[in-house]
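A protein record in our archive is deliberately plain, so that people and models can read it alike. The tokens are whole numbers drawn from a learned vocabulary of local backbone shapes. For reference, a complete record is included directly beneath this paragraph.
>
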Amino acid sequence: MRRMALVVTVVAIAGMAGPAGAQVAWLGAAGGASWTWDGERSSLVRGDDLALNLFVGIPLDRDALLRLRGAELPLGGSHGATMRAVGLGVDYFFPGVVGEALVSAGVGGYRLNLAGPQPAGSGDESWELGWYLGVGEWFALSRRTRLTVELTWERTRHPGSLTMVAATAGVAVSL
């Protein structure tokens, strides 16, 4: 049911945003590293596994993109634990140093997937509201393909106000 609602939402947004630059959508995939803020040590702790980021972007106009994103971010210091994110945000593009620079922001749901059994009622593995801020640059590889480099800061309402940073590089393709 959730997948069907997602498909209907993406199709509806694509129908509304079709005239924007004659592009219907951008599809992207990226991988990289993630770090979790450890308040006790006042440091960032790197996650053990690959951070993944997938998105569908609908152009709103020439310089803005509505992004539906999903991410899987390994938690630093917790082998096998991850943070899953599903969010909706807006990317703003402007001329960059070499490519197109971007600033992005959005909100979404975040779910901790902790390694091992957790005490009942701890709330650690529940979905919580969160937000993200990002910066990056997209480099043209061809007319419809971009190399993406992005840095995002993720913040959730989980116990301890979990904060994560992810650095990813990937590819975006215009449809």
User: Anything to note?
Assistant: Residues 4-8, 17-21 have pLDDT under 50 and may be disordered. The two ends are 26 Å apart (CA to CA). The CA atoms of residues 147 and 171 lie 5 Å apart. The helical segments are 2-17.
